[in-house]
Amino acid sequence: MNFGGVDRMNTQATRGGYPEQYYPNTEELKKNEMRVVALGTGRPFLRRSQANASWLVELGNGDKFVFDFGFGSQMNFTALEIPYSEVNAWFATHLHTDHVGDFGQVWIGSWAGGRLKPLEVYGPSGLEPKFGFKHFCEKQMESYAWDTNSRVGALPAVGAEVNIHEFDYSKTQVVYEYAGVKIISFPAVHQVDGPVSFRLEWNGLTFVYSGDTTPSQIFIDNAKEADVVVHETFNTVEQLMDRSGYDERTARAIGTYIHSAPEEASVVLKEIDPRLAVVFHFFNDFDTTPEIRERIRRHYQGPLAMATDFMVINVTKEHIVTRMAEVSEHVWPNKSKHAGFGEAKRKPMPQMSDWLKEAQLFPKQDSPRGLIYKGD
Ligand SMILES: [Zn+2]
Ligand SMILES: [Zn+2]
């Protein structure tokens, strides 16, 4: 499943004793180590090989953060066999569906998956309240009223709660600071006001994630001296015309006006000169990637990874190692027992109409131990 997306200087020579592939739950992070996993690297179209944007960052202190949660990406999160309850917080760069489409799965999946505290989500404001992250989350939750109501009797009630942290998109500022982890938001230049990029600092290691952006000085200034820089780039205009059926005008608008063309991302990466540059947000295929890589190489000559889903990056002060994860198609999420889950407070089970109850072949009300939880 490795598409050869990692340039030589970053593979064999510096594998640093890691197994050839990353098998979930088989490698404990060292105390001073960061692990980055690509959960989604593709374009707004979903396809089996590449979900929409999402990046997991795990730290040696046990913290876990997810940046963006586009459509399909949470299926890849599940494949890593990490209990949802272990994620500290989720961060959205902007409100395009390919970056926040899996909100419902993040929310309900983590609830059913053992989370015994409110979901913590962070995202930017917009020029008007209706373009902000808070509005997005509230309307998503409201639209799932039936779903939430149906679950509160069976699952711990607290899991339905979401703490929405909306912050000013226009400022460069710390939006999360806890246990030695600092996450800084700064404005991204992407079509209209609102989008941001993130910089995570911990234990002398820095990870910077662009979300969607056209090349900008703000990004360069905030990504300087980072260890790992994940910057977006798109398929070339020619590829968009040949394979996505776009006319030239549309292809140019998408590939260069809204997103960073590879040769433009190249200039940004050269300026930043990170320990490892990662590009994503393009369809990564054997017959499209060489041309994209050649354009990235026009200016930037440093270590480079062309991301695809399940790319795994281990980062310490000494080395950066890039591999692919090998995952099961039939994984069961949340294999571990959730402490306190069974005892956590529920709400009274919502009731169906009598005529539906009467249609049951095996009425549940009289079950021993009460399958219907009456609440407190
Ligand atoms: Zn976007
Ligand atoms: Zn996008």
Termini separation comes to 51 Å
Within the CATH hierarchy, at the fold level, what is the topology? Metallo-beta-lactamase, Chain A
Count of domain modules: 1
The overall average pLDDT, rounded, is 92
Report the CATH architecture. 4-Layer Sandwich
Radius of gyration: 22 Å
Describe what you observe in this structure.
This protein is of the alpha/beta class and 376 residues long. It has one domain (8-357): Ribonuclease Z/Hydroxyacylglutathione hydrolase-like (Metallo-beta-lactamase, Chain A). The protein has 11 helices and 16 strands. A 9-stranded mixed β-sheet has the order 1-16-15-2-3-4-5-6-7. The radius of gyration is 22 Å and the shape is globular. The chain starts with 20 loop residues before the first strand and ends in a 19-residue tail after the last helix. The model is unreliable at 8-13 and 366-370 (pLDDT under 50). The structure holds zinc ion (ZN) (2 copies).
